[in-house]
């Protein structure tokens, strides 16, 4: 058999490491140490994510001081970049704890024989969530462009009705797009939906504008099947998430639980923040036991986000992303301004609008970070794929040791 | 269509003059004295000016004129605004005039803005007016753009794409009746590539309207409404791509669903995906790229940015299917499909690299490259996994009759189509474990190497058959009868040799392998004869003793042994006619002469009534062996 046929790269590494270890006790101590370190790092990373800042300002006409807010306000793009970084770090460390230097036969014994397949199942669901988020970010980029048109129009001086109309048109499209309901969206995703471009006010049919707006939403239907629901996905990921009990010999069960919780939390936060297909009841889908020490920071974050979600859900929010929320408010306020506009504008009004336009411009600028965020989401996707493969590899080795594969 | 040429040139010229004049005034203000030359030049200019209709003679006169021009252009635009017909549908002349009027409005608003230094109320009012009209015109043009696109998009008929949806199994109504669907079945047949849609660029919209679309782009860009234009244009094509997916019956499924899908269904989806990939990338995206170039080409990077924005979502959806396949559990039946997927990606790599060559497209390009690598890895792992699975395949019961084990059949049929994938597999198998996959295609001339029996595919095929052989060897140990063990091995190895000889794979295995394995099954045949017949023939050995009772005893012994062999072996099976014949003949050549020699000497002594079989009877029996059906040995004593 040629050398290339050797698949046991993991096992080789493992056996080398095990030979270096003098006795099982030392091995066990090492294991405990690794575990503690992993747990500590998870705590540290999530503590970093807790910001002392209050949630995003509630009034659109609040002072433009918001531009001075730190970059990593809770649920901002910058915050999500940090969150995904934290996830990637935790994940790398988790993999080391789980795979490197461990006896792979543990995978075949309780409790891992049940926990690992559950973990793998969760990761597949996470991949679909990542995909949905990637497409959701696309939609937000699209909003950014519409907002940018509003900024361009209202930055003109002297501000005239032509500019105001221009801004109003694009911001209205933006707001309609943002408040588009999931269910409606679904019906548009169907290929059976006959689009009637041949209408318009020239054709005397439905308004062009309405259909065009619908068109912007079709982009969401790129994601997955019509029946796919982000909310159900998160629910399924967390439903079998049970903390290992204190008395049991936990071993690797704890890090598996910790990593699963981190995974579900990250996916849950992304789904809450970024437009996604079907998110009803999201807030209730992810209970973390309160008493866990390592999870305190995460529980705090989860509570805050959960409250935000409950507040906004009834209004049919398009996502808790801080920039989206602010964009929506500022845009709404600018549309109100546009509705009551009369030429020439009063100096006072112009000044007020100028401040809002500056804020919108600043939000748009922050949204440039969506591109790297999207890339990071892809990185998370690819990382999960790779780790999954490595875990399967170990399972495969274990499987070969115990039962031969029959064809 | 030159009708839509922009009047921007005159406008530019005016600006030049304006700037130059300003410059002169400034220079004159700076100097106190003028020499003669300058004086003469200025005098010249003066006469020039006096012969021209002067706009700037007086401020108010200029404004009045601008006002008139604005009114004129505004009328043009507003008259069409109240008209409910499409501008384009009203004829080229109308459309051209409309566009001219829009340019005029834009020019006027620019002029007004530059005159606005003294902030006269009237000018402000006019500028405001101009902006409103411009906005009305822009909204109208955006609408017009979408209508033009929607009404003139060419509905394509994917003539050589026949798609069947997995769920209902109904032939797609609009497809030309497909022969290819039959190949989708599990036969390890490769789709013939001759029927694939070839690279071609189609007209996504009627060529007649492209210049009109371009003129809309031009005027919107000139009026700084480029964002609106791009937004509408991108969205339209995004939706169109979505529509193509529907036409191609390419359902969007989650990775989770794909991983759970039953193989036959998934296999059909793979075939569809492969065609969709080719069609979307080679035809749709290539055509879209051309159209974007025609419309937006002269606006620089905007063109590629728009193209990427319009296509990224569709590409991610297509790639996602591949990702799902790449992480799905390794199953041997997936190998060829994975290789097909890998090959189509490798094949499309240059297309992707050129479609998304710019920086903005690097996201798509990277994802594509990554997927290619991952699929390659999965295909390779599937092949290796298969080899290992063959080696570790165990049975608990001996295979009845010693015939061809289904594992042998499976393996040999499995590798049969590999020849066609040899260059791809060579590439994938040539990579060492843990090494990063090298960029495929073009780096090494695998085509050449693949012709040798030392290439990676050849090595792996021989490794696979040696795994098979040792697995068979293990299975043969389950037989209690040593002879049957040899028949089993002979049958199976013979089957392997014949399969290799009868296919293109022979060049990978090489003459040496064929000689080697031919020797092996012949050895098993010889061993069979030895193990079965030597003890039987031993009874006929002439030891010089001619005592009647001894001879009778030995003959009875022989007869019993022969019948025992026959009873045992009549149910054994050699499926290959040639091999069966050969073994019967060589057996009879071993047995019959010995029997004849014995009978010549002994029969007279033993006496006729003790003789059950003539030499011919025996031969008949031997020539009936290995049919696989137990026939009772009846006395064929005919005298």
TrEMBL record, chain A:
<keyword id="KW-0472">Membrane</keyword>
<feature type="compositionally biased region" description="Basic and acidic residues">
    <location>
        <begin position="182"/>
        <end position="194"/>
    </location>
</feature>
<dbReference type="InterPro" id="IPR008511">
    <property type="entry name" value="ROH1-like"/>
</dbReference>
<keyword id="KW-0812">Transmembrane</keyword>
<keyword id="KW-1133">Transmembrane helix</keyword>
<dbReference type="GO" id="GO:0016020">
    <property type="term" value="C:membrane"/>
</dbReference>
<comment type="similarity">
    <text>Belongs to the ROH1 family.</text>
</comment>
<feature type="transmembrane region" description="Helical">
    <location>
        <begin position="254"/>
        <end position="274"/>
    </location>
</feature>
<dbReference type="Pfam" id="PF05633">
    <property type="entry name" value="ROH1-like"/>
</dbReference>
<protein>
    <recommendedName>
        <fullName>R3H domain-containing protein</fullName>
    </recommendedName>
</protein>
<feature type="region of interest" description="Disordered">
    <location>
        <begin position="182"/>
        <end position="206"/>
    </location>
</feature>
Automatic annotation (TrEMBL), chain B:
<dbReference type="Pfam" id="PF20669">
    <property type="entry name" value="Exo70_N"/>
</dbReference>
<dbReference type="InterPro" id="IPR004140">
    <property type="entry name" value="Exo70"/>
</dbReference>
<dbReference type="GO" id="GO:0005546">
    <property type="term" value="F:phosphatidylinositol-4,5-bisphosphate binding"/>
</dbReference>
<feature type="domain" description="Exocyst complex subunit Exo70 C-terminal">
    <location>
        <begin position="271"/>
        <end position="623"/>
    </location>
</feature>
<comment type="function">
    <text>Component of the exocyst complex.</text>
</comment>
<comment type="similarity">
    <text>Belongs to the EXO70 family.</text>
</comment>
<dbReference type="Pfam" id="PF03081">
    <property type="entry name" value="Exo70_C"/>
</dbReference>
<dbReference type="InterPro" id="IPR016159">
    <property type="entry name" value="Cullin_repeat-like_dom_sf"/>
</dbReference>
<protein>
    <recommendedName>
        <fullName>Exocyst subunit Exo70 family protein</fullName>
    </recommendedName>
</protein>
<keyword id="KW-0653">Protein transport</keyword>
<keyword id="KW-0268">Exocytosis</keyword>
<dbReference type="GO" id="GO:0015031">
    <property type="term" value="P:protein transport"/>
</dbReference>
<dbReference type="InterPro" id="IPR046364">
    <property type="entry name" value="Exo70_C"/>
</dbReference>
<keyword id="KW-0813">Transport</keyword>
<dbReference type="GO" id="GO:0000145">
    <property type="term" value="C:exocyst"/>
</dbReference>
<dbReference type="GO" id="GO:0006887">
    <property type="term" value="P:exocytosis"/>
</dbReference>
